[in-house]
Specification:
homotetramer; 0% strand; DNA-binding; elongated; Arc Repressor Mutant, subunit A; Tetracycline Repressor, domain 2; 9 helices; mainly alpha; 2 domains
DNA sequence: CATGAATGAGTCTTCATTCAT
DNA sequence: GATGAATGAAGACTCATTCAT
């Protein structure tokens, strides 16, 4: 629905400009060009609105990653690693201000469950991809997928949150690819 | 000072039990067995209190990691990887509820700068350690250290925030060690 | 607006009954029969509310004086003096408790600017009137107007603040008229 | 006592620098180089301290004026007017920032009584002076003295509070003298 | 007498939520 | 359905005053 989309957009704008604490329902409604009351016609409360916005974006990332995993089935692990990194980064860094703002929501009470749920999808897709590798043998694909994705996530988060210098971004993809290639390579099947 | 310690403890307790939003100055004071006014005798405002608590714990972790890096100078990279992982995990998982609670503070406005500042110390120590490896050549030790630590951080965070099943903890150290060993191993000097 | 009027009235009542320091937003809201939040729907903060109340009343006085000045153009200075005193006193003493309460606001940080701004209007109107006197020549009408009005203001304030015995009020107008008549008379043009 | 003097000085400094609201007992004590507790050894509460400071300065002004009145006994009214204005202005404008700050205290609950009490002294001295004039007959010297002083006070206050442009100060004494000369001159005894 | 940490009542202000229009 | 004024609970922070040392 157009209204819901307007709310999502408005929420993200207020979030990035004013921060989570100043992201009030009134401000979001105003930005979306509607009244506060209308917000409550679509979401039972503020948290639900924020959760929906977070979920939508997490799903987009997950979807992108899952699709990539799908396409990489049967390819060698080295290619898997580079494709996975590429897809994940492209999705997360498409709009850095948004990705960054969403971390704040995820840190809220209830955010963890949401992230966990969607993470599971990504892990499943990745594990499934890994299991299809012709040149490697993963005893526990789910575990390997989890470690891979969380490691990747940690690096991206550090970049977005500013924990590391921005110029680090340039070689991020290269290093991340190297990291996963090396890791997944450990499970390469002896020819 | 005893009062400051009581405030730290109380803050962490309220934080873990009520969450960041409900971690009010009044509640902290009450839990610490003092009045609100006393809190403001030691910290100019709520954010300063939270930042102090966060900083103290981050410094402890950083110190532990730095000390380990010191001790691993000159050792082979494989050992470095396993020692680094071991030290980092031991520090972060000592009290999981506290580590978890602190993520919320770090996500607050101003938290990023603090994390970035202390992260730099860890990166420096780690890079210095890497540069001393007899069996590897790192073109850019700082970059490698950054990637290593953020990847490790991402995995630990996922565990703490519950993004991954708790039983995953058992093999975490093993997998993380594998991850870093593989990554750092890429830079092993050809004999 | 009815709500704004209610706030003005309530503010003045609280001000006269409890004094400026005890004139809290909550008390004003309560007296106005509404909740605190509503006060902030009309004024950004307490100072703005107080300033608005002060301004409204100062403007009323200024308007009254200005209108009188308008009507006295071209009249002899003696008449100007008596009309000015009469109008000023009528406006200021209409509700003594209100006039008195407003002095407290004017003494607040920011109040001076407001008073100065509105004073300028009165001075301008008075100076213009003086310049039109057929029987006098004022080198600097603005200066004379300023001295006249501030002198008048000082006397009225002393009465309102209780610096002088209340029974003094009876002959106030008479003496004030005498004061200004004598002063302005100094500039009477020699026939 | 030295301590009391230090408190007076400190209070005035804090008052002029931070304003009445931010003139806290702790800040005053700190400025005076002592602890809060000591303040309460000399004054029962904050209001008493402020009142004492106000009173001291008002007394100084009153004393100056009274002394001048004493010296002007028997002189012609024109001279009385000029001497009175001169003395009053010299006292009030000696330190404008202090005079200005004290208005804030006077506007407080209880300040009026204090001002009224000390005003009475000045009025008495002035009335007595007027009664001794050889060239004038004042039916009610007290009334005339009151009007004269309040008018003078109003003009000075307007200047100090910034209600009128500062450059106005230059001709203030001249105009104020003219004002009183003209007023008192109305009672000149026909030769 | 001096000290200054502790107190806690009291302010201002914000904001999620409701509901009469 | 939309509106947005009204609500009032809750939070951060201040500061006059006390009292144990």
């Amino acid at each position: 629905m157009a209204t819901v989309d307007a709310l999502h957009t408005a929420t993200l704008q207020v979030l990035t400009q004013h921060g989570l604490v100043r992201c009030t329902t009134t401000r979001v409604a105003e930005r979306a060009g509607m009244s506060v009351g209308s917000v409550y016609q679509y979401y039972p409360n503020r948290d639900a609105l924020l959760a929906a916005v977070l979920e939508k974006h997490l799903l987009e990332v997950a979807e992108t990653v899952a699709r990539t995993c799908e396409q990489c089935r049967g390819k060698p692990v080295a290619e898997m690693a580079s494709e996975l990194v590429s897809a994940y980064l492209a999705a997360k860094l498409r709009d850095t201000s948004i990705s960054k703002a969403l971390y704040a929501i995820a840190a809220q009470r209830g955010g963890a469950e949401l992230v966990a749920r969607i993470n599971t999808r990504m892990v499943t897709a990745t594990a499934s991809m890994l299991a299809s590798a012709p040149d490697a043998d993963f005893e526990d694909p789910t575990l390997i997928a989890t470690v891979s994705l969380t490691a990747l996530g940690g690096t991206v988060r550090a970049l977005l949150e500013g924990y590391v210098p921005p110029l680090f971004e340039t070689c991020l993809e290269q290093q991340a690819t190297l990291l996963l290639t090396a890791y997944l390579g450990m499970y390469r099947r002896p020819a």
